[in-house]
Amino acid sequence: MNFNLLNLKVFGDSRGKLISLESNKNLPFEIKRVYYIFDTVPDQERGKHAHRNLEQLIVVMDGACELVLDDGKKRETVWLNRPDVGLYIGKNIWREMRNFSYGCKLMVLSSDFYNEEEYIRDYNEFLKYINH
Question: Which residues of the chain have pLDDT under 50?
């Protein structure tokens, strides 16, 4: 399946910690868009879509959440709960985000700009698309 947990290199001293994310260095793509999700609540789900060509890195900045990843053949669950571990998701992976801790904050880095045509928002359409 086209996803991977990336251990992000932490730099730190008595003043605090820092993680640098750089296009095509410690990320396998060029960063064209960054957005974040916040004020989450446990009983709400997000995601429920796939991207045709987009790659993403998702980092939990604070709190925790569960991601269900699906390539049309297999489903896997990943928990994100540390800011030094990022979830790389390649193209053609269905993702569902759920079980957020109250106030969980996610940062998402994307390989391209927002384009609604890039999304597959219906699971059955996703299955048809990847099996054509």
Answer: none
